[in-house]
Amino acid sequence: MRFGEILRDLYKYIHFPYFRYMAIMTPLRPRMGRTITLLLAVFTWILGIVIGIPSLIYFRTYTDTLSDGEERVICYMEWPDGVTNESMQEYVFNVAFLVITYVIPILSMTYTYARIGLELWGSQSIGECTQRQMENIKSKRRVVKMMMVVVIIFAVCWLPYQLYFIVTSYFPDITNSEYIQETYLAIYWLAMSNSMYNPIIYCWMNAR
């Protein structure tokens, strides 16, 4: 389940900001060649596969009977050093997953968009500004605001999902709560909905 998320977010939230950064900050520099672009895509796939291997190997399922007699199928990871939520290996995996799919993308977007923002926001026209030049400046600043919103939306949507696994590693009894499955599904839906908001943001904050 995490495999697709890793591939999508690593490529979109690390590579794309870098491409935009290079296009704006070094417009006269030759564009990235097809070979390098292909290598980045291959690297993303390999990294996603490597991170997805533990899930493929250690995931198990069992049927749990609730107090009202209802049966619920639970999917969990059984690590070599212990069951899920009691394993140090699982905790290390969750922290690594957090860093790779959340911290690094946010740092990447923050750095590149901040540099782009400073470049666009501080750009001034030479001589007296015409109406067209003023509109161009406003358009650039609108782009800066849009990029800030994209970063904030990403952080808000994915933070509960990332924290869920860290918290349940510290407090395993939480997974036995009555509505934990519904809570997880809500958190999962929020994370997956992140991609839905970006087109809305682009349309809403675009002057055209």
Brief account:
With 208 residues, the chain is mainly α. It has helices at residues 2-25, 34-58, 88-121, 131-170, 180-192, 194-204, and strands at 59-65, 71-79, 82-83. Pfam families: 7tm_1 (PF00001).
Notes on the structure:
There is one protein chain. The chain has a single domain, classed as Up-down Bundle (Rhopdopsin 7-helix transmembrane proteins). It is 71% helix and 9% strand. It contains six helices and three strands. The protein has helices at 2-25, 34-58, 88-121, 131-170, 180-192, 194-204; strands spanning 59-65, 71-79, 82-83. A three-stranded antiparallel beta sheet has the order 1-2-3. Strand 2 (71-79) and strand 3 form a beta hairpin. Helix 1 (2-25) packs antiparallel against helix 2 (34-58) and helix 4 (131-170) packs antiparallel against helix 6 (194-204). 15% of the residues are buried.
